[in-house]
Amino acid sequence: MGYVSDNLNLLSDIAKCIAMQFGENCEVVLHDLTLPYDQTIVAIWNGHVTGRKVGDGGTNAGLEILKGSAAPDDQYSYVNATPNGRILRSSSKYFRDEYGKVNGSLCINLDITDMIKCENTLRSFTGSGSSALTQTPELFVGNVDELLEIMMKEAVSMTGKSVGNLTKEEKVAVVHNLDGKGFFLIKKAAEKLADFLGLSRYSIYNYLNESH
């Protein structure tokens, strides 16, 4: 059992309160990170904001925290973007067990796209310039298979080559890049990457054991 499952009713009431306060453009999500990563969402309000529902998985940011390659610090009011270009103002609160390991989170994603359009319109009249938004690379997807697909393509794109032209060394680099981001915490991720790179699953595990 984890903090989220032990306190689901209370956390759900708090999440609902936040969603009702800020309206239909405010998505509030409860993740139980003790569950398989393709089904961590145990409660969600206004899921249309990112196109997710109960039973869907987490983002790449959660994977990196579970892997230990990113600090599990609470984050407030950072900027994100959905795959269809909507701009979000997000906050993430993490829950920990008695050993300090993250096992759940409460995430708020407020769609501010229309607010930014209004702001830019006003700035065009006041002449005060435009605001710059720094977006963090958090991937909001409806299922974990889609998340894995995006992560694999991004890892390959970092080599500057197409997947069919990668050398062995570059494939090893791709494997280690994904490992650092928690890719292999997802069930059957190795099989998917093997298919993507045109390798055997055995080769993937060998590459993981190679120094890089």
From TrEMBL:
Q: Which Pfam families match?
A: HTH_22, PAS_6
The YheO-like domain, residue ranges: 8-120
Every Transcriptional regulator DauR-like HTH domain range: 148-209
- Which residue spans adopt a coiled-coil conformation according to this UniProt entry? none
Give the matching InterPro entries: DauR-like, DauR-like_HTH, YheO
Fetch the PANTHER family from UniProt. TRANSCRIPTIONAL REGULATOR DAUR
Q: What is this protein called?
A: Transcriptional regulator
